[in-house]
Amino acid sequence: MTAIKESSTRSANKKITADMCPVTYIMNRIGGYWKPIILYQLMSGPKRYSELKKAIPTITEKMLIQHLKQMEADFIINREAKPVVPPYVTYSLSPSGQELQPVLQSMAAWAVKNSAELS
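The structure assignment produced for this chain is given below.
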């Protein structure tokens, strides 16, 4: 997959839309298939990489690492490397990520309600 240039028309339109629409802004930060699932797992507390991988067994290592890096860059999660032998990394919600908890809980409640209606 090729990267999209920052100067492309698509990138410019995406930025304009994100600046004008708060829903687009948040979906650019936490949208997609895996990010909400990762955030939902972190709502119960800090987790090591291996715990996240076990909690989301269908995600590939590449996707998990990629999304964790993106959310860390967006200041939604914190990454803390423990200087022990063997070293390990712990991920947790940042203060900004913690503010997303009511949103994610509402999304989960909506999903439970609507999936029951479809059954």
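Interim note for the steering committee: The chain has seven helices and three strands. The radius of gyration is 16 Å.
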